[in-house]
Design brief:
Layout lengths: L1 H79 L10 H10 L4 E6 L4 E4 L14 H8 L7 E8 L6 E7 L6 E8 H8 L3 H6 L1 H9 L4 E9 L4 E3 L10 H10 L1 E6 L2 E7 L2 H4 L11 E9 L1 H52 L14 H36 L6 E2 L2 E8 L7 E6 L8 E9 L4 H18 L5 H15 L7 E9 L4 E7 L4 E5 L4 E5 L17 E4 L4 E6 L17 H9 L5 H16 L8 E7 L1
Antiparallel strand pairs: 1-2, 1-5, 3-4, 4-5, 6-7, 6-10, 8-9, 9-10, 11-12, 12-21, 13-14, 14-15, 15-16, 16-19, 17-18, 17-20, 20-21
Helix pairs in contact: 1-9, 9-10, 10-11, 11-12, 13-14
């Protein structure tokens, strides 16, 4: 053992010497990742805040642009003196008129949605109705109204320019006059030059200046046909496929040497729920570039220093600890190993004595506790096995044999014990043609539910031997359960059915349980045994109603618990009742035990390897 540990230590020394640079390099990458994670979210938050402030500032400027734009449109209409959509002006004429009144471009739109005259020649004969139904309906609502319509400032998909668009159609006119006002031109005309930088550029220069590793920052405005730099108004170097991938993945990081570039989908539409904000007509991508070259130089120096220092420390530790390992560590590990071997053989009466107050002594103490726990678990498992045997003895040992009836029942528990219950009660004289059939479902499953079921079964057996109607029996059982289990939070659904062949009738009480299913083979129809009633044990004073109907030959009655139709497969799909209806119809001429077996096999095939989440119980009655 000693030689083996010495060999291990020598291996650790050599491996540490070889891997130290890899470890420090990995730490460097983690450090950079941590810096990125801490820094990038803050930067993106600053960018988003800056854009929100930009939107607010634009909104204020836009109000002024709207007032001036409306005056410009009125003046332009007077200059053009348009009589109909047949009037035509050259692009240069329209350009000069637009410039005269502070507009950038003029567009004339006919009722078919075409731009039939404009100062911006690339848009001549463009059909604006083709831009979407919402925009089409928006334009159609303007014709002949004499009302000004404003669009919020937006980015032109063709030029990248930030423009304000205003529409006007004189009363009874068959055309729309649209003008665009360039934000840049408007600011240059109405504000001092420094105001342009205040809007956007200065904010991002400040962000770069306040971040040590931040090298470059840009924002792309992306429409369905183009992309533009929001800061420089230039086309980005990245291609459209890459930009589309940023939207699909939300964030992309590209590492090139000491440079890491992050592209992020800003989703300003979510930050600005107002549908009229500046960013509603295009998406935004933030590009942030980090330069970690200084950090890499520091890391390389640290790797060299740490390699030499670590090797020296390992050698010193090895020389000092060799004797300690032999006299203190190894002997205690051997003692723990012997104790584990005893536990492995099934003997849990073990007490490993290890001196000290360190991790090894703690391990020995935990092993001793584990052995005690295993011993207790073994005792508990034996108790559970006995409880399971007792509960199985409380269920019917065999199906009843009554002339004129064919009955079969079965319960399957999802744990060793459960809360489902079914029973056949002899409520008439010997060889009479009356029998009581009970199916119950206690809330939850396991030991607690099994005890509740046992108590309910005892009360039912005792009360059923005394005089009284079916509803009186259930009222008495419910009252006693509610008193005994007050504030326990448990309850039990129950379906108590009495089949009386002499009276050719069925009586039942339904206490919060699923309705019974009745199939009539003669007319190939399904019905349900319904009724009102809450679960047992909830309200001691509740009065249950007794239901009654006639019974006919060639009928199949099914009473089950919800664990059957609520069973799920691996995909979470429920079994439902439709398969039960199908199986009943297909096997209606077979014996009840065969119908029961067919349903259980179908259910087993449905959930396959998925564990049952609830107990299941089913009773089949054929007349």
């Amino acid at each position: 053992m000693k030689k083996r540990i010495i060999a291990y230590l020598l291996t650790i020394v050599l491996a540490s010497w070889l891997l130290i640079s890899v470890v420090i390099g990995g730490y460097s990458r983690l450090k950079i990742k941590k810096i990125l994670n801490q820094n990038k979210e803050d930067i993106f938050q600053q960018i988003e805040t800056s854009l929100q402030e930009y939107d607010t500032l634009l909104f204020s400027i836009e109000k002024q642009m709207e007032t001036g734009g409306e005056k410009a449109i009125s003046a332009i209409i007077n200059d053009l003196d348009i009589q109909s959509k047949e009037d035509h002006f050259s692009s240069m004429q329209l350009k000069n008129i637009a410039k005269r009144y502070g507009a950038s471009e003029i567009y004339l739109i006919n009722k078919e949605g075409y731009i039939y005259n404009t100062s911006f020649e690339p848009d001549m004969q463009l059909n604006l109705f083709s831009l979407g139904d919402d925009f089409k309906n928006y334009l159609k609502s303007m014709f002949g109204t004499g009302v000004f319509h404003h669009q919020r400032i937006t980015i032109s998909a063709k030029t990248g320019a930030v423009n304000k668009y205003i529409y006007f159609s004189p009363k009874s006119a068959d055309y729309i006059l649209e003008i665009s006002i360039s934000l840049d031109d408007y600011i240059d005309t109405n504000y001092v030059p420094e105001f342009r930088n205040l809007l956007l550029s200065n904010s991002y220069k400040k962000i770069i200046k306040n971040n040590l590793y931040l090298n470059e920052l840009d924002i792309y405005a992306v429409t369905n046909i183009s992309a533009w730099s929001f800061i420089t108004s230039k086309v980005p170097q990245e291609d459209k496929n890459f930009i589309d991938s940023v939207f699909s993945e939300n964030e992309i990081q590209i590492r090139k040497g000491a440079t890491i570039t992050i592209y992020k989908n800003l989703e300003m539409q979510k930050l600005l729920p107002d549908k009229k904000h500046f960013f509603k007509n295009f998406n935004q991508i933030a590009k942030v570039e980090y330069d970690f070259s200084i950090f890499h130089k520091y890391t390389n120096t640290l790797i060299m220093f740490s390699t030499v220092s670590t090797l020296f420390i390992i050698i010193i530790i090895f020389l000092v600890s060799s004797k300690f390992l032999n006299t203190y560590l190894i002997e205690r590990i051997i003692r723990i190993n012997k104790g584990l071997s005893i536990i492995r053989e099934g003997n849990y009466n073990v007490d490993i004595q290890v001196l000290g107050n360190d991790e090894i002594s703690t391990i020995a103490e935990n092993i001793n506790k584990m052995a005690g726990g295993l011993k207790e678990r073994e005792r508990f498992q034996k108790s559970i096995s006995i409880a399971k045997e007792v509960q199985q003895l409380l269920l019917p040992k065999q199906n009843p044999e009554i002339s004129g009836l064919d009955i079969a029942g079965q319960s399957i528990y999802c744990e060793e014990t459960g809360g489902d219950y079914y029973d056949f009660l002899d409520i008439g004289l010997q060889n009479s043609k009356r029998i009581g059939i009970v199916v119950g479902d206690v809330s939850g499953h396991g030991i607690g539910s099994a005890l509740f079921m046992t108590m309910a079964r005892s009360l039912l057996h005792l009360r059923s031997t005394q005089p009284g109607t079916l509803s009186e029996i259930i009222n008495d059982v419910n009252r006693q359960l509610a008193i005994d289990l007050e504030d326990s939070g448990q309850f039990m659904t129950l379906f108590y059915l009495i089949v009386d062949q002499q009276a050719q009738s069925i009586k039942w009480v339904r206490a919060g349980h699923e309705p019974g299913i009745v199939y009539d083979r003669c007319d190939d129809s399904f019905d349900e045994l319904r009724g009102t009633g809450i679960p047992l044990g909830v309200d001691a004073d509740f009065k249950y109603a007794e239901e009654k109907t006639r019974i006919k030959k060639n009928q199949v009655v099914i009473i089950g618990t919800d664990g059957i139709w609520e069973a799920t497969d691996a995909n979470g799909k429920m079994f439902g009742k439709e398969p039960i209806y199908r199986i009943i119809k297909a096997n209606a001429t077979h014996e009840s035990r065969e119908i029961l077996k067919a349903i259980m096999e179908e259910l087993k095939h449905f959930h396959k390897d998925t564990n049952l989440a609830d107990d299941i119980t089913l009773v089949v009655i054929k007349t």
